[in-house]
Write a structure and sequence with these properties.
The protein has helices at about 35, 65-70, 180-185, 235-240, 245-250; strands spanning about 10-15, 15-20, 25, 30-35, 50-55, 60, 75-80, 85, 90, 95, 110-115, 120-125, 135-140, 145-150, 155-160, 165-175, 180, 190-195, 200-205, 215. The chain is mostly beta strands.
């Protein structure tokens, strides 16, 4: 990998998944197939990799497990295939984080890119299935070692930004996570579709929404959330296990005027 995540985990490509090092815990991966995400793609009949991405929810070092669970946190790892889904790059289908019973709110997610490159696309509000105005829309381009935070209640998806390479990332999430796909699916996807054109990615409006702009940008520094740039977010938890409590308890952060 281009960036050391701070513990012994290695993405694999054949098959897509992860290898865990000594004293690292992790589950058998869950695979997302092309057929399972077609409803949210610009062309639901497109061709592409059969396994689009593989997910390992709840990974980490054995000695940290108790502290992670105590704070209702979960560290997940995801690896994506390279290539296209029709005119689009490989990507996830898009969802909102469902309300977590533990905090009574939708929760945020803290992404860290490990290899390849990613656009983390997000739109401001998408909880109700009838909401056609998505609010602010961003596509945040991130490279290995860079962090992107998606706030509570925002619909989002992950996009492979360099279609010639597999892409992998880790993320802090709430432990009792859940996904709400209904709003995105009712609109045939998120508000802006990523399109591969002349080896670049552009964003094309989904006509199911009333929106005029997708802001394409690089990640900012999240010092307001206590995150240190350039240091693995897993290592930052080890140094201060309370650092990411805003993930499991979103009321600890100010999300009203959030900019990714």
């Amino acid at each position: 990998m281009k960036f050391d995540p701070g513990f012994k985990i290695t993405p694999t490509s054949a098959p897509l998944g992860f290898q865990y090092g000594q004293r690292v815990f992790g589950p058998q991966v869950e695979n997302r197939t092309l057929d399972s995400i077609r409803k949210n793609l610009r062309d639901p009949n497109c061709t592409g990799p059969d396994i689009v991405y593989s997910i390992a929810m709840d990974v980490g070092c054995e000695e940290d497990r108790e502290e992670i669970v105590k704070r209702n946190l979960l560290y997940g790892a995801v690896t994506y295939a390279k290539g296209n889904l029709g005119e689009e790059p490989v990507r996830s289908q898009g969802h909102v984080h469902a309300v977590s019973p533990s905090c009574g709110m939708s929760t945020c997610e803290v992404y860290e890119i490990w290899s390849g490159a990613a656009y983390i696309y997000m739109q401001e509000t998408m909880q109700e299935t009838t909401r056609d105005f998505p609010g602010r829309c961003y596509a945040v381009l991130a490279y290995p070692g860079e962090v992107v935070v998606v706030p509570p209640n925002w619909a989002h998806c992950t996009i492979v930004a360099d279609i010639t390479k597999n892409m992998s990332f880790g993320a802090w999430c709430v432990r009792d996570f859940g996904f709400d796909y209904s709003g995105v699916r009712s609109h045939g996807g998120v508000a802006w579709f990523p399109i591969v054109k002349d080896n670049n990615i552009i964003f094309q409006k989904n006509d199911s929404y009333q929106t005029e702009e997708c802001v394409v940008k690089r990640p900012r520094r999240y010092s307001d959330l206590g995150i240190e740039a350039g240091k693995p977010i897993y290592t930052q938890f080890q140094e201060n296990p309370d650092r990411f409590l805003f993930v499991s308890n979103p009321k600890l952060a100010d999300w009203e005027h959030f900019v990714p």
